[in-house]
Amino acid sequence: MHGNGRQHDGAAPRVVVGISGSLGSLTALHRGVAEARNRGAELWPVLAWEPPGGEHGYRRSPCPPLLAAVREAAERRLDEALEAAFGGADPGVPVRPVVIRGETGPALLHVADRADDLLVLGRSGGPLPRRLRRPVSAYCARRAGCPVLTVPAPELLHDLEALHRRARWHLPVGPAPELLSAKG
After folding, report:
1. What's the pLDDT at 23?
2. Ramachandran angles phi, psi of 106, nearest 5°
3. Cβ neighbours of residue 28 under 8 Å, at least 6 residues apart?
4. d(CA 72, CA 1)
5. What crossing angle do the helices spanning 23-39 and 155-168 adopt, rounded to 10°?
6. Residues 6+ apart with CB under 8 A from 182
7. Is the separation of the CB atoms in 79 and 72 below 8 Å?
8. Burial group, residue 28, by CB count within 10 angstroms (0-12, 13-18, 19+)
9. Which residues neighbour 66 within 8 Å (Cβ) at sequence distance 6 or greater?
10. Cα separation of 20 and 15, whole Å?
């Protein structure tokens, strides 16, 4: 069910979507379905994974059973993301899920390796997680050989981040005035 991302010449057009399981990647997945329908393309949801401690750490202390467990967990995460996005319903386009070993940005570019591919990425995490790791969307936009579409974070994510900030600062968590004014 899960491939390595290699494609044969003359195959159907593809919309490749980076999946992490976050709300932002699920939004990108829905946008990817719409783009695949418009283009008559296949949808390739891609989840990249790395061994614990990264590739360098794994080379120093290889453990094949651990590696197999991490890969299986990545496959489950992708299946769960697809289930969360579609709820078991047919998205209406051919879906070719891919689980690939590697750092997220380079792995996505390895799969989206044709000029006629479309790479769709969502934004996930708050400002702190984005500072702690390389922004995948910026990496892919600079290096991709195909168009890259970055889908903005869903409104719900902004609301959740605002509630999280209020809870962290021990402010009332009820309807925040800024959320009410934005909605009203």
Report:
1. 85
2. -60, -35
3. 17, 18, 19, 120, 121, 122, 151
4. 12
5. 180
6. none
7. no
8. buried
9. 51, 52
10. 16
Separation between Cα atoms, residue 133 and residue 64, nearest integer Å: 26
Amino acid at 65: P
Strand order from edge to edge, sheet including 98-101? 98-101, 42-49, 14-18, 118-122, 148-151
Tokens linked to 104: 């997220």
Contact partners, residue 3, CB within 8 Å, separation at least 6: 96, 97, 98
Which structure tokens are listed for 101?
A: 């070993």
Length of the chain: 184
pLDDT average per 10 residues of sequence, the chain (184 residues): 52 94 91 97 98 88 92 97 94 97 96 97 64 76 96 78 80 62 58
H/E run at residue 15? strand 14-18
Using one digit for the tens of pLDDT, what is the confidence trace for 145-174?
999 999 987 777 677 777 878 888 887 766
Q: Give residue for tokens 């990545």.
A: 74
Global pTM value: 0.79
